[in-house]
Design goal:
75 residues, alpha+beta, 434 Repressor (Amino-terminal Domain), 2 strands
Length: 75
């Protein structure tokens, strides 16, 4: 059986929000998305566009490479 590697986008958005004491609603409003989008990003169910990732990093004042990274998933 051949193994494949999928890549996924990991994030520390929940940690960054907690450090800044920003709610999902507040962050969503700041970057122009819904609270559900923020929740989906935090749980890894949604992969943000590059533009949204940069907006989120700016909103929480973290370098983008600290907030998001590529993680390999072997299956």
């Amino acid at each position: 059986m051949r193994k494949t590697t999928e890549e996924a986008l990991g994030n520390k958005l929940r940690v960054a929000r907690a450090e800044r004491e920003i709610s999902q609603d507040e962050l969503a409003h700041a970057v122009g998305v819904t609270r559900q989008t923020i929740s989906s990003i935090e749980t890894g169910q949604y992969c943000p566009s590059a533009l949204l990732a940069f907006k989120l990093a700016r909103a929480v004042d973290w370098p983008i490479e600290r907030l998001f990274w590529i993680q390999g998933v072997t299956g």
